[in-house]
Amino acid sequence: MKAVYLLEHSYPVGEDKFFDEVRIIGLYSTKRKAKEALLNYQCKVGFKSHIDGFWIEKWKVDDNFQWVDGFVTIMI
Q1: How far is 55 from 40, CA to CA, in rounded Å?
Q2: Distance CA 3, CA 15 (A)
Q3: How far apart are the C-alpha atoms of 15 and 2, rounded to whole Å?
Q4: What does the alpha-carbon distance between residue 50 and residue 63 come to, in Å, rounded to a whole number?
Q5: How far apart, in whole angstroms, are the C-alpha atoms of residue 36 and residue 4?
Q6: CA 16 – CA 58 distance, rounded (Å)
Q7: What is the per-residue pLDDT for 50?
């Protein structure tokens, strides 16, 4: 089964650091390409102060995804 690799970055925000600011950076066809992008973003303003906030997730293409729990609130 084919897969894509999702590169994201997050860090805690707010006075009590209770919420996370999450950024979806991109989808990549290989884990290697996702790691290369991660290395590129590590030196950029807004990312370099939170280097431990990067992660890569493997997503299977055409997989029957089921939302299990949790939610995301977007504040504009």
Answers
A1: 14
A2: 38
A3: 42
A4: 32
A5: 14
A6: 31
A7: 84
